[in-house]
Structure formats: C-alpha cells, structure tokens
Design a protein that fits this description.
alpha/beta, Spore Coat Polysaccharide Biosynthesis Protein SpsA, Chain A, UDP N-Acetylglucosamine Acyltransferase, domain 1, six-stranded parallel β-sheet, 9 helices, about 20% helix, about 30% strand
C-alpha cells in the first residue's frame, strides 16, 4: 500500500499568512501540519508516500525532505493543469500509484488517534474503497453521504440540504479501481473533478465501498478559526518534557507547558498551559495563556496572549491583550504611543483582519 498526500492549492481563506507560506506548513503546536499526516501514515506501516504540490513549489520539498526522518520514501508530484479538484489529483498521480492500493490523505486535516484501523478494515473486508466520516455541525461545507441500511449509496458535494450530519473527511483508502472512476466522471458545476463524484461512481458500478466513522476529533483547517481550534486540540494532548529554558525565579508556570532550548522567561511573567514556546524566545513581564503556540526566536514583552498562534521571529511589545489571533513570521506589534505622532499605524496586507 502507498499513500498520496495533498499539499497544493492556494488557501485563499487563510491569506495573508498563505501569501508567503504554504498552508500545509503552517505550524500547529509548533509543527507544520503536513508532518501530522506523514506521521499518521508512517504509523500505519506505509513507507511510500507521494505528495501533490503546485507546479514549481520548492517550499514543501525543503521542509519535508526525502522522508528519512519518518522512515519513509517521499516522491513529489506536481499538479499539472492547476487546481482542478481532488479526483484530478488522484488521476495526476497515476504513474506513481500504479495498480497499488493507497491512502489518500488531505494534508490540511488533523485527526486524533491512529488510522491503522482504517487500513485493517479495508484489508479485512476486501473493500475497493473505504471512506472516513465524522459528525459535523455544518455538513453543507463538505461531501455528505447518504446511508441506507448501513451502506453508503451516494456522496453529495456541499449540498444545500444535507442528507445527514456526517461529513466526508480528508482520509480515503482505494484500490486501483478508483482510476476508472476519476477517468470517467465529468467536471462538476464549479468546474472541478470532485472526489465525491468518484466515490459515487464506484458505488453505482457495484464496487464494495465501506466506511468508518472517526470517533475522536477531526479538524479540517480551512479557515483561521479552524487553525486555532486545531492548535487547541493538539495542545490538549501536549506531552510534558523537561524544560530546557532559562526561567527566572519570579516566573509562574501553571499546567502543561513546554519551553524549548535557548529560551528565556523573565520578570513577572505567568505562563498558563497548555502552551508551547519554541527555541531562543524571550518572554518578559508577560502573560501567555492557554492554547497558545509560540514559534522559534519570538520576543514578547509586557503583553498578554491567549489562544493564539505566533509564528517565528515575531516581536510583540504592545502592553495589550491579544486573543484568538494568528501572527505571521517576523511581524511586529508595538504600542501606539511608542513613536510620534500617537495613533494606530498599520501596514495591512490583502485579506487581513484587524480589530482596534
């Protein structure tokens, strides 16, 4: 069995962060989100992984490398023809996949627990396809199954009137018959080759299509608030380890907090977990509250931050309280009175959101 991970697209809903960073490399709990997908696949015993990337993209390759870190071999597959839907990604990977069964894993999906049981069910039940579903409050955003007598009879993409509260998640397992489906489905009304249509094709042709419900949490990180929730979910399971930082005597640390090597926390700082703080950071006279991830080389002074993701090399010294925020690489947030004339001075990129 092989695996195919998606890591292309433009992620317009996450701009301006994704103007400069591939969405799949945005860190959750200080780890690029695509790393979680690779870890799940490697844990399931799969050692050959193809990663679908945009044409000319070197960013994913530089970050992920050959796969040796996870004991896998990674092949990069450029998405010829541009973004034309998930079924087109499968079709585009035909030479890599050959006649092998494979896990199709959307690289921006985060789940709790192992996917081994999905692979075992696929093999033990001799399935042609296995689809992973999860209960969601807004199924109209996803591919939604219609289930009758325990069998999937149809998948409808982004329906206005969903037949159930289940969503097709970003994890699928297929045998070689999916290639017949992706070759024969027409484009949808939005001009894309939908994986939901390919799944329905297999069902209509009488192939053995099974499903498994994800019982833990699952998160599709398509919007900024989804990233923050995904970060929360991972931090809840944060493993404690010995703090390698320089922590001054006046600092208070509560709950699960991980501070990496080379960082300094001083003054009257309070760190209340779950929180992860990267390498070579300086936190001075600040409060870092629950569900906050702080990347490497960040400086925070006289500021309160909670439920936020702060990327590498950011500098924050504003004397204010920051919540529910994404702060990009090398961003600077300072107090409005630090320079003249007084007032809020902004350099705001496309699709930014600012609350003053």
């Amino acid at each position: 069995m092989k695996a195919l991970i998606t890591a292309g697209g433009r992620a317009t809903r996450l701009r301006p962060i994704t103007h400069t960073t591939n969405k799949h490399l945005i860190p959750l709990a200080n780890k690029p989100m695509i790393f979680y997908a690779i870890e799940k696949i490697a844990e399931a015993g799969v050692t050959e992984i193809g990663i679908n990337i945009n044409i000319g993209d070197k960013e994913i390759q530089q970050a992920v490398g050959s796969g040796d870190h996870w004991g896998v071999k990674i092949t990069y597959i450029e998405q010829s023809g541009g973004p034309r839907g998930l079924a087109h990604i499968v079709k585009n990977a035909k030479d890599f996949l050959g006649d092998d069964s494979f896990i199709f894993y959307l690289g921006d999906n985060i789940i709790l627990g192992s996917i081994k049981r999905f692979v075992e069910k696929f093999n033990n039940d001799h399935l042609n396809a296995l689809l992973a579903f999860a209960k969601v409050p807004d199924p109209e955003r996803f591919g939604v199954p219609e289930i009758r007598d325990g069998k999937v009879i149809k998948i409808e993409e982004k329906p206005s009137q969903p037949k159930s509260n289940l969503a097709q998640t970003g994890i699928y397992i297929y045998d070689h018959n999916i290639m017949d489906a992706v070759e024969n489905i027409p484009p949808s009304a939005r001009g894309e080759y939908e994986i939901s249509d390919a799944n329905t094709y297999l069902i209509d042709k009488g192939f053995n299509v099974g499903y498994e419900e994800i019982t833990g949490w699952w998160k599709d990180t398509g919007k900024p608030e989804d990233l923050l929730e995904g970060n929360q979910l991972i931090l809840r399971d944060l493993a404690e380890k010995e703090k390698e930082a320089d922590i001054a005597p006046g600092v208070t640390i509560q709950g699960k907090v991980r501070v990496e090597k080379g960082s300094y926390i001083g003054g009257k700082s309070l760190i209340r977990g779950p929180v992860i703080i990267g390498k070579n950071c300086v936190i001075q006279d600040s409060y870092i509250g629950p569900y906050t991830s702080i990347g490497d080389n960040v400086r925070i002074t006289n500021t309160e931050i909670e439920n936020s993701i702060i990327l590498e090399r950011a500098e924050i010294k504003c004397g204010k309280r920051i919540v529910d925020s994404l702060v990009g690489h090398s961003s600077i947030i300072t107090a409005s009175g630090d320079s003249l004339p007084w007032g809020h001075k902004l350099i705001v990129g496309d699709n930014s959101v600012v609350e003053l």
